[in-house]
Write a structure and sequence with these properties.
- The protein has one domain (about 1-260).
- The longest helix has about 55 residues, at about 230-285.
- Helix 1 runs parallel beside helix 5 (about 90-120) and helix 8 (about 185-225) packs antiparallel against helix 9 (about 230-285).
- Helices cover about 80% and strands about 0% of the residues.
- With about 280 residues, the protein is an all-alpha fold.
- It has helices at about 1-25, 40-60, 60-65, 70-85, 90-120, 135-140, 150-170, 185-225, 230-285.
- The protein is globular.
């Protein structure tokens, strides 16, 4: 588990370092208007509630049973939890989640979104005296310059979803092994199961990156509204803590139920074995 924490620190540290390099290249302030104040803290908490409630509702068992998109989102989440977070101590997973939220906000929000907005918008010196942005290079005001921050937030959200698609989407197998059972009905049943399995994999590729894109767009609007990177950092941290914590609790409960079933079955088998030894199979029957 210590290796996972060290790996996460190295990965998120590298992400923050890459963001600082981009900020130095584009001339954007790396701290993104950071200012610690009670108002920003309460704003961050307030912004965290809607996405948390929406995703917790989507991940409910009844919703997952009746909605393929919800099933795909929870499958991807469970895979990520099983691969990385399961087994961490109560202090390790909040630390990793908080570090990830800070690094991702500095990279995606400040360096990417801030850099794009900086490249698109016009300075306050006037149209002909502009010294930054695309206008300084072309002499023409692009149609999206008045909406530079909005356009930058949308592009950043699209980039975030694309990165999650490349990194976390399941790879298609080269072949599928299925039992060779003779009979037309059996072959149809196997074909239908394989098609359903493949459709489920395709849904994972679509809906999980889509959720990440929507969250990135939401956080981008929050940064636009507050002008303080601390607000989306708080929102992102609380959101991830609640979602990851809820997923770990669900996995723990499912494992506990499975152990109870196994113990119940093994207990019944052990009792039956003792009865056969003591009374014999004739008396039991």
């Amino acid at each position: 588990m210590v290796f996972r924490v060290v790996y996460a620190i190295a990965m998120y540290g590298g992400l923050a370092f890459a963001g600082s390099l981009i900020c130095n290249f584009t001339g954007v302030d790396l701290w993104g208007g950071f200012d610690l104040s009670p108002q920003v803290i309460t704003t961050g908490f307030g912004y965290a509630v809607p996405p948390m409630m929406v995703l917790l509702f989507i991940l409910e068992d009844e919703i997952v049973k009746n909605c393929g998109a919800a099933r795909a989102i929870r499958d991807v989440e469970d895979e990520e939890l099983m691969d990385f977070f399961v087994g961490m101590s109560p202090w390790q997973f909040p630390f990793v989640v908080a570090a990830g939220a800070v690094a991702e906000e500095l990279f995606f929000r400040v360096s990417i979104q801030g850099g794009l907005a900086h490249a698109f918008q016009v300075s306050d010196k006037g149209m002909s005296e502009t010294t930054i942005g695309l206008v300084s290079l072309t002499g023409v005001i692009p149609m999206f310059v008045p909406f530079a921050h909005l356009f930058a937030a949308v592009l950043t959200a699209a980039l975030t979803g694309s990165m999650y698609y490349v990194i976390s989407s399941p790879k298609d197998p080269k072949y599928v092994v299925a039992p060779a059972i003779h009979g037309r009905n059996n072959q149809r049943d196997i074909k239908a199961r394989v098609e359903a399995w493949y459709a489920r994999r395709q849904q994972k590729k679509i809906y999980s990156p889509l959720v990440e894109s929507l969250l990135a767009l939401y956080l981008g609007f929050e940064w636009m509204h507050t002008g303080n990177i601390l607000a989306p950092i708080i929102t992102h941290t609380l959101y991830s803590l609640v979602i990851v914590g809820n997923g770990l609790r669900r996995i723990h409960d499912n494992r506990a139920k499975l152990r109870q079933r196994v113990n119940k079955i093994t207990g019944q088998q052990r009792l039956a074995s003792l009865e056969r030894r003591e009374f014999g199979p004739e008396k039991i029957n």
